[in-house]
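Subject: design request, 479 residues
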């Protein structure tokens, strides 16, 4: 088994290295370029400016040009990568002069930092969760889950292709999931706090962690045990926040300035054509013509909480490990479908728990993961990553088939037919988008069709996940 696991890990690294050879976000696209330039610019800012200036607009830090808008742990990571880049070639991070810097050497450096994060954090974290699932549920599915998690196209197309470091926040979140599964709740609290302080989008996973850990505290046999466990978890979370945020805690203005960068209400409810409810509603009822950003933000918060509360109340009351995984899936989908300022890439937050649910619902989760990649095709097409996306998705499907056997139950036949219909629809849409030019009046026709089709799937998966939360026997069993 060890050799097979090692082979799966090397397969994942090989795929990521191949994807790294392709183009990235904003390549040769001045004046703003893309996410690749954003990450490089953050290295430039953090290396050359004092920490107190990282989130502040100034002549040396124009926040309108890819200003830092992620939490402090991302800034510290940018500083570390920037120092390494500066040691290789100072031109990589030369203040002002390095804007839009591109070279083969710099691309190799930037790409290698993502692969290094895969090796150091993401892949070990995924393995840790797979081993934890087998230990807790007494199975032999580590190789199956690990291989599919490593070859899931969505994560490496965005990180190693488009260019981001979701592997760090997702890896830290996965370590926290493994901590919950193994009953190491202090470790889970620490790792998830790190994940949240790397990317604020980890709020998508926050409610299940909060509900489960609070339920564990309330479930103690005595008030003393309750107070002890709760105070220790709170101390871990608050201390981690305090250490990471310490440069800005001396001034309320500085701290609020960072928070305003993390939650920019002025940007609007969504960007581009994202596969959530508000983008779909906007097709027939123009949101910006009837609601301002502040009103829309309040509506989004209310709808998200209403959608997410039932599954989290169930976790708080029952605290089963399966229920926790389903709550992560349901809550992240609720945030994706209804929250404010959603990006195409945030579907990866729902994909993470779905990779672990493959153990019980392989056919359903396979379809979800394929739709998640489909929903990001407009973004990947902009980066000239359509061909790698299609090829890796087909390969992912074939890898899945290698691990699963044919079954003849009525349920499986129905699921197979539904999946086949969905796959045919997606293939037809992709084929049509490549061969039929959109009308001049509707230049975004195909991205819109992809987003609405994906949204319909995600709504159905959200309903399915909540149904499983309240009916699946495994999810209803307390630890």
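Subject: RE: design request

Done. Sequence follows.
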């Amino acid at each position: 088994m060890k050799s097979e696991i090692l082979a799966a890990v090397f397969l994942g690294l090989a795929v990521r290295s191949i994807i790294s050879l392709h183009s990235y976000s904003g390549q040769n696209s001045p004046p703003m370029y893309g996410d690749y330039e954003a990450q490089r610019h953050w290295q430039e800012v953090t290396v050359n400016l004092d920490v107190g200036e990282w989130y502040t607009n100034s002549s040396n830090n124009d926040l309108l040009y890819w200003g830092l808008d992620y939490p402090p742990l991302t800034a510290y990571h940018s500083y570390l990568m920037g120092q390494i880049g500066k040691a290789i070639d100072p031109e990589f991070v030369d203040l002002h002069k390095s804007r839009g810097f591109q070279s083969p050497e710099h691309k190799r450096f930037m790409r290698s930092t993502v692969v290094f994060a895969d090796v150091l954090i993401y892949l070990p974290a995924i393995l840790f969760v797979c081993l934890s699932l087998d230990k807790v549920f007494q199975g032999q599915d580590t190789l199956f889950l690990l291989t599919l998690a490593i070859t899931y196209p969505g994560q490496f197309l965005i990180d190693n292709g488009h260019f981001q470091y979701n592997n760090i926040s997702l890896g830290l979140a996965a370590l926290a999931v493994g901590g919950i599964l193994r009953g190491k709740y202090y470790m889970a609290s620490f790792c998830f706090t790190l994940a949240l302080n790397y990317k604020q989008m980890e709020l998508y996973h926050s409610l299940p962690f909060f509900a489960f850990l609070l339920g564990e505290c309330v479930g103690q046999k005595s008030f003393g045990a309750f107070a002890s466990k709760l105070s220790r978890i709170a101390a871990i979370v608050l201390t981690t926040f305090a250490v990471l945020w310490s440069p800005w805690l001396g001034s309320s203005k500085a701290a609020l300035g960072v928070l305003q960068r993390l939650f920019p209400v002025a940007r609007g409810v969504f960007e581009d054509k994202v596969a959530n409810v508000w983008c779909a509603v906007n097709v027939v009822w123009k949101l910006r013509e009837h609601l301002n950003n502040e009103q829309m933000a309040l509506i989004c918060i209310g709808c998200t909480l209403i959608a997410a509360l039932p599954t989290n109340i169930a976790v708080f009351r029952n605290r089963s490990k399966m229920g926790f995984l389903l709550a992560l899936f349901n809550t992240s989908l609720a945030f994706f479908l209804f929250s404010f300022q959603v990006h195409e890439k945030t579907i990866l937050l729902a994909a993470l728990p779905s990779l672990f649910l493959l153990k019980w619902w392989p056919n359903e989760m396979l379809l979800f993961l394929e739709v998640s990649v489909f929903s990001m095709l407009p973004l990947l097409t902009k980066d000239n990553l359509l061909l790698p996306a299609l090829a890796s998705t087909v390969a992912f499907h074939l890898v899945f088939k290698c691990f699963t056997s044919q079954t003849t139950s009525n349920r499986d036949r129905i699921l197979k037919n539904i999946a086949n219909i969905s796959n045919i629809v997606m293939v037809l849409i992709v084929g049509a988008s490549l061969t039929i030019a959109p009308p001049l009046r509707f230049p975004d026709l195909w991205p819109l069709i992809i987003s609405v089709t994906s949204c319909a799937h995600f709504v159905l998966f959200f309903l399915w996940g909540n149904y499983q939360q309240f009916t699946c026997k495994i999810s209803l069993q307390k630890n």
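The mean pLDDT is 94.
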